[in-house]
Amino acid sequence: MPKANASTAKEKSAKTAPASKTSHVRAPKASSKTLSATERKVFVLDTSVILYDHSAIQNFQEHDVAIPITVLEELDNFKKGNDIKNFEAREFIRFIDKLSAEHKLQEWIPLNGKTKGSFRVVMNQSVSLDAVKVFGDKNDHHILNSAIQIQQEQPDRKVVLVTKDINLRLKARALNLISEDYETGKIQDVAGLYTGSDTLEDVPANLINELYEKGVCEADNILPTPPLDNHFFILKSFKNSVLSFYNSADKVLERVDKHNAFGVKPRNAEQAFALHALLNPNIKLVSVQGVAGTGKTLLALASALEQRRNYKQIYLARPIVPLSNKDIGYLPGDIKSKLNPYMEPLWDNLKYIQNQYPETSKEYQKIKDMVEQEKLMITPLAYIRGRSLSNIIFIVDEAQNLTPHEVKTIISRAGENTKIIFTGDIYQIDTPYLDSQSNGLSYLIDRAKNHPLYAHITLLKGERSELANLANELL
Question: What cellular component GO annotations does this protein have (predicted)?
Answer without folding.
Answer: cytosol
